[in-house]
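Can't attach files on this board, so I'm pasting raw text. These are the components:
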Amino acid sequence: QVTLKESGPVLVKPTETLTLTCTVSGFSLSNARMGVSWIRQPPGKALEWLAHIFSNDEKSYTTSLKSRLTISKDTSKSQVVLTMINMDPVDTATYYCARNYLVAMDVWGQGTTVTVSS
Amino acid sequence: DVQMTQSPSSLSASVGDRVTITCQASQGISNSLNWYQQKPGEAPNLLIYGASNLKTGVPSRFRGSGSGTDFTFTISSLQPEDIATYYCQQFDDLPLTFGGGTKVEIK
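---
Top answer:
Structure tokens for the assembled complex are below.
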């Protein structure tokens, strides 16, 4: 069974760095047909794709947040980590990780809610 | 970046009605489009990939069509369990991008 689970802080202060971890099971991060994406959703708003890491460690980021995001993976731990620097209250959202199988995000984590407030 | 525009942003229909949602890409994306369903309080769920391919286990009342810049998502007979927000997403080019979503409610 394929599962993904996000973990990280519930509350961060403005200007701090957010670090989120996606722990996967049921597939390998070294599988050539698979990668992992991070997506976020502010309260009551639409989904926003943030970043993706491929099996070959190639990375891609959304244009508007590229300077603030870093995605990495530890295949041995089955984990994908997303860091976002200089957090702001507008970054308050539910953050999801999802498996990319070939062309689609076919399995999603339950999401983790992050609030940015002093 | 490829911009995805969905319409309408919300709709209300009766059980049994046919529901249609459109998604337009800012440039041609071939058939590189997926559709997701997000029920309230839940994570999104893939329904259709490659514009028209139903994910295994998804009811056949859901259908996707289109190519190039214009795509359509249809529920042939709306059911109470279909209450959700639906999103299109293109994978023709990086960065990946989602549409703004269509909230479907029961009248």
